[in-house]
Amino acid sequence: MAIIIKTDEEIDLMRKSGHLLAKVHEELKAAVCPGVSTLELDEIGEKTIRALGGIPNCKNYEGFPASVCISVNDEVVHGIPSADRILQEGDIVTFDTGLIYKGYHSDAARTWGVGKISEEAQKLIDVTRESFFEGIKKARVGNRLHDISRAIDDYITPHGYGIVRELTGHGIGTHLHEDPMVPNYRQLRRGVKLQKNMTICVEPMITMGNRKICWLDDDWTVVTMDGSLAAHYENTIAITDGEPEILTLEWS
Known about the structure:
Mean pLDDT: 97
CATH superfamily: Creatinase/methionine aminopeptidase superfamily
Number of helices: 4
Low-confidence stretches: none
Number of strands: 15
Order of helices and strands: HHEEEEEHHEEEEEEEEEE
CATH topology: Creatine Amidinohydrolase
CATH class: Alpha Beta
Shape: globular
CATH architecture: Alpha-Beta Complex
Number of domains: 1
């Protein structure tokens, strides 16, 4: 496993990349409403990324045709934007996207409700988000990578939700996906020791039903096999001497 420890200068560039991406997500969130197509949302995302001086890192990545992965309801990840996919009141929608700034990647995902959504759907979104924050409590120098995984699992499992196992978080830097993989469920081993200036994406992907998933015929869109709702929350983080730094949140 070739984990790349960044320099302080590289962390600065990744911080800038992440802050720009946070602005993109704010624009996407503001555009969510009944009647908008996922293609229109993708266009907003790409336009914002480029206006901020970034390059969309999803577009053409291994052939993906858009700048934002937009997944609706039972779609877990990698939904392909379409003019025919119109958001409806009560849907939930996930944006998973990233950008490149001066050669450095950022990556983040958010799930939002469309108009008024059910209490059950909102709870799924909230628990998924909170599981990320429970996980990164363990993202400290001297802890092990899979301490993060265990913390996410320990928070999610009592709620009765499914944790997707086929897809995980990952390292990030000058490449969108680097070592190490960051699972969202308990591992038999504790994993590598966390070191200062490691940069990783922690991204729980959670289902309201069981954890089984499948890929659609487009070879991209991942859906729950039982048709249950799915939520996703992701940030790029840097390991520091103290608490982890979330790089993909807005400046306070």
